[in-house]
Specification:
Blueprint (H helix, E strand, L loop, with lengths): L1 E2 L6 E2 L40 H25 L7 H21 L5 H23 L2 H26 L5 H27 L7 H21 L1 H11 L2
Antiparallel strand pairs: 1-2
Helix pairs in contact: 1-2, 2-3, 3-4, 4-5, 5-6, 6-7
Length: 234
């Protein structure tokens, strides 16, 4: 067995150069065996990427089969008096729009997909409202909450989507979450009690502010920002 004269790594009998440092192998007592197969492939090859559309088709088939199976079990075997399979099928449809649809059409902008996501969520809530005859809470509560999500997080995406600073995006997202939970409690209280009583949303807003303030200080101080990037490799 030969060893590299430069780095000392153990060499295979078929090696003409050291696989670690590239030093030429020269051992008169053990010439290179050019007839034996090398211990590792010489030609560089790449693994073929998985087709996004084929993967999406498989996921679609699985979701469709699961929805049909749940419908059959609901209709003939388990709790036929309760339409629980409708919730399962609607949930699969909503998840399909969220995660599988972008695999079929990767060229559509993220803004359009966000709109589709909101529509899918509104559709699923409408399905639940139709099953339980709850159009009152759907119109007065569910739709305003979905609209609030669209305005806040859609606006966040428009403002911060092309920003290079991930720190600014993080600050904006935390701020959007804090405002969302504040307005969410307002909508819930107005629908359930008729007036707003500050409660848990104040705690979430305080947490959001306490997270945003240190990040804002780091964002406004270039020297501190560079030190944080160097320390935490961000």
């Amino acid at each position: 067995m030969s060893y590299c004269v430069n780095c000392g790594v153990e060499l295979d009998k078929t090696a003409a150069f050291c696989p670690l440092c590239g030093t030429e192998v020269m051992n008169p007592k053990m010439p290179i065996d050019k007839t034996a197969a090398p211990p590792f492939p010489i030609d560089r090859q790449e693994v073929a990427p998985v087709s996004r559309k084929e993967f999406a088709l498989v996921i679609t088939t699985l979701m469709g089969a699961a929805s049909i199976s749940c419908g059959i079990m609901n209709l003939f075997f388990f709790f036929p008096q309760i339409a629980w399979s409708v919730y399962v099928a609607g949930g699969f449809a909503m998840v399909w729009v969220w995660f599988v649809l972008p695999l079929f059409q990767a060229k559509i902008s993220a803004k359009i997909y966000f709109l589709f996501d909101l529509m899918a969520l509104a559709g699923y809530m409408a399905l639940i409202a139709a099953v339980v005859n709850g159009w009152n809470w759907y119109v007065q509560l569910a739709l305003p909450i979905i609209a609030l999500m669209g305005v806040l997080f859609g606006g966040f995406g428009v403002v911060f989507w092309n920003k290079r600073s991930s720190l600014s995006g993080c600050i904006g997202f935390i701020g959007c979450c804090g405002v969302f939970f504040l307005l969410l409690e307002v909508l819930i209280d107005l629908w359930a009690k008729g007036k707003y009583h500050p409660g848990w949303s104040i705690v979430t807003a305080a947490v959001a502010v306490s997270l945003m303030l240190p990040l804002l200080v780091i964002r406004w101080r270039p020297a501190l920002r560079e030190e944080v990037r160097r320390r935490f490799h961000v």
